[in-house]
Amino acid sequence: MTRxxxxxxxxxxxxxxxxxxxxxPETRSMTTADGTRLDADIWxxxxxxxxxxxxxxxxxxxxxxxxxxxxxxxxxxAQGYLVVVQDVRGRGTSEGRFDPGADEAADGAETVEWAAAxxxxxxxxxMYGFSYQAYNQLLAATGDCPSLAAxxxxxxxxxxxxxxxxQGGAFNLAEMAGWGTQIAxxxxxxxxxxxxxxxxxxxxxxxxxxRVPGQPEALVGAQAAGHFPAWSTTPPDDPRWQMISVGAQVxxxxxxxxxxxxxxxxxxxxxxxxxxxxxxxxxxxxxxxRLKVGPWAHFPWTRHLAGMDFGPEAATDTDRAQIAFxxxxxxxxxxxxxxxxxxxxxxxxxxxxxxxxxxxxxxxLYLTGAGRAATRPGDGGLAEAPxxxxxxxxxxPWRPAPAxxxxxxxxxxxxxxxxxxxxxxVATFDTAPFDAPVRLAGRVALSLRVTADRPSFDLSATLSVxxxxxxVAPLCGGYRHLRxxxxxxxxxxxxxxxxxxxxxxxxxxxxxxxxxxxxxxxxGTGADPVTAAAEAALVTTIVLQLGADCALTxxxxxxxxGV
Length: 563
What we know:
Radius of gyration: 24 Å
Distance between the termini: 52 Å
Number of helices: 12
Largest sheet: 10 strands, mixed
Oligomer: single chain
Strand content: 25-35%
C-alpha cells in the first residue's frame, strides 16, 4: 500500500550515466503478521521489466541506503534491478521497537515475499548491504521466504556471543558503547526525547570516565531508547544470544544453498564473523559462494587507511563487483570461476590473491624468552622450537595497557604501536628479520599456558609486522577473558590476515592484560568487569609458562600458491 503520510522523495525520473534510466522513486508500506507497518522506498528501472528485486533492510534510515560505502540505490536500479530500501522495525519511519536481531528473521522473510510480489518484480529477490544490513540478510534467509535468491552480506555479525557483543568471553565495550549510543540517540529522537538526545551526544567524549567504566552513565540512563544496558549485562553463555545468532541457524542456511558473496576487511571489527560465516557455509568448488577481503576498515573502502596507501588495486569497484555477481546468478550474464572464489588482498604487495578456497596452511612458531619480554623489547622471541622458563606481566589497573590496533586505539588500521609495545606491562615476542619473502594468508591462532596470582585475568594479543623503518604495524588481534584461572592451555582466536613480508621485516606478538577501552578492565577479583567499580580493581601478576603449549599458528603459504 502507498502511505499518504509518507510523501515521495520529490525526485524526478533520473537518466543515469553508464546504465538505464530510473523512474521517480515511490514510498510504499507493508504490514507484518503482527500488525507492524514497515516503510520502504522503491527505485524502478525505466523499461518494461520485469526485474529482479534488490532489497536492503536499513537500521539507520532508509534514505542513507549504505551510501557510506555503496553507490546510491538509484545507481543499482539503473543496472536493471528493482531496488527496495526498507526501514527495519523501530527505525526510520517504520513502526515498532528496535530490538537488535529479535525480529529480523520473521520481518525479513515477510519483506522478501512482499517485495517479490511488487509490480515490476520478476519474483526473485536478492539482498545486499553491510554491517547490520548484512546481519539481517542472513537472518532473513533462515525464515520462510522461498523467493530469496541470493545474498551479499558485507562486514556483518555472525554470532553476537562471539565477535559482536562479546569476544573470547569479554564484553566488546568500545564497539558496543559506540553503537549503543548511535542507536539510543536515534531512539531518543523518534520518541521526542530532546534532553536525552542532547545528553547522549554530549557524553561521547567522556563515555568511560565514570566510576563503573563498563556501564557508561549516559547509556545506562537511556535504557528506554536503546539496548546497551540489556546487552552489556547478558553474559555470553545466556541462551538469548542463540535466539538471534546466525551461527545457530547454520544448518538451515546450508540446506538452502543460496548464492552468496561475503565481503570483509582486514581491519574491520567483523572480520572474524565474515571468515567464520564463509567457512561455515562453504561449498568447496561452488563458484556461487564467494569471499572477498580487502585492506579496509568498516568504512570507507578505499586505498588509504591510517596513513597507509595500499595502492590502486585496493580501490576496487565493489559496486560493479556486486552487480557482476548478481548478473551471473540471477540473469545468466557472465561466469563465476571456481579457482578465484576467494579473493584476498595482500597488504604487502598491494595485489589481490585468488584462491579456490580459504587457505589453511598452518605453521607453528613458539614463544621464547629470557625472563624480560615485558620489560625489555626484543628479549622475547618467536622460534621454530619451544621455549623454556617463564615470562611475567604485571597489570596495574591504574594505568591499564591501552587498545593499540588493529581495530581500536588510534582507529582501525596499521597505526604504529611501538610506543605501546615499549610499556613495561606489554610482553613482546619477535621473529628474526626474514631473509626472503614470507607470504601469510588465512586465519591466525594462539595457544598459551598461563596463570596468575588473582582469581581472574584477561589476555590481549596482537600480531604485527615490524617494518624495516621500525614501525610496528598491527595485522590482527584477539582477546580472552578468563573468569577463573585455567587448568590447561588457553586458546585465543586472532582473526586473520594476508600480507607478504619482505626481506628485513619481522613479526611480533604482543601480549598484555588489557586493551582498554576496547574491553573493560578485569578487576582481578572474579567480579564481572562490565559492572565492577574502578576502585575495586587489583594489581595482577600473570605468569606465562613457556614450552610446547605456547605457540602462534600462522597461515604461511607456499611460494606458488594464491597468485
